Amino acid sequence: GAKRNDKVVCRITKWPMEDRKPEGKIIEVLGQKGDRYVEIASVIREHGLPEEFPKKVLDEAEKVAVEIPQEEIDRRLDIRDMNIFTIDGEDAKDLDDAVSIEVLDNGNYKLGVHIADVTHYVKEKSKLDKEALKRATSVYLVDKVIPMLPKNLSNGVCSLNPFEDKLTLSVFMEIDSKGEVIKHDIKETVINSKARMTYTEVSDILEKDDEKLKNTFAKVVDDFYNAEKLARILMQRRE
Question: Which of the four pLDDT bands, split at 50, 70 and 90, describes residue 66?
């Protein structure tokens, strides 16, 4: 049923030889060349990217406990009261890292980077772990993501959504005015993000002094200004 200018998936039945072109069987018609969805589908097929998860993997993901047991919270550093926030693109759904920043009495910065603790939910050698290892990474296309983990994990229990308790691995760094890390500490933590920011919102606060946004995110606005100062120190050091 393929038409002229359709993009198709073809299974090769005869490989090319000096006097013969390859032959094959069309097993899927993707649609007309030039259509954005067809072009993205063709990239997915060309690289053999796995869109669907095996049923056994999805079944295992469904059994992952969403509620955090109290004993797990008790054994971790509880920093749910800290000003912690995420900054991502408007369309992002897997919020896997968050930051916090303080200015210490000695003038140094205390930067916290908090990464979703996926290992609490995805146990080594489990079906989820093996599938994630096979995929290696999430793949970001123009208008869709092919995730490394099923969505109820990547966009749900492992995503650092605002105002939800989440398990994280945190590194705390004390950084001086020259951008040198004086000391650092790594902890298993539990956090509760205070804001889900976008790059546009943060840049509008810092560069355009947007009063409406500053009022909306009043609790974390000072942190943005401190983060910008530290970012400039680190950029200068890098240069």
Answer: confident
The answer to whether 142 and 91 have CB atoms below 8 angstroms apart is no
Span 165-221, pLDDT tens digits: 999 999 999 999 999 999 999 999 999 999 999 999 999 999 999 999 999 999 999
In DSSP notation, 188-229 reads EEEEE-SEEEEHHHHHHHHHH--HHHHHHTTTTHHHHHHHHH
Q: For residues 34-53, give the mean pLDDT.
A: 93
The helix (H) or strand (E) run that includes residue 116 is strand 109-116
Structure tokens at 73: 């919270």
Q: Give the whole-angstrom CA distance, residue 201 versus residue 213.
A: 7
Q: Which residues contact residue 213 at a Cβ distance below 8 angstroms, ignoring those fewer than 6 apart?
A: 201, 204, 205
Label each residue of 8-38 as H, E or C.
EEEEEEECCECCECCEEEEEEEEEECCCHHH
- 207's tokens: 């560069």
- Tell me which amino acid residue 221 is: V
> What order of strands is seen across the sheet that includes strand 195-198?
77-78, 181-192, 165-175, 109-116, 97-103, 85-88, 195-198
160 near 95, Cβ under 8 Å? yes
Name the pTM for this structure: 0.84
Pairwise CA distance, residues 43 & 46, whole Å = 5
Judge whether 55 and 61 are in contact, CB under 8 Å. Answer: no
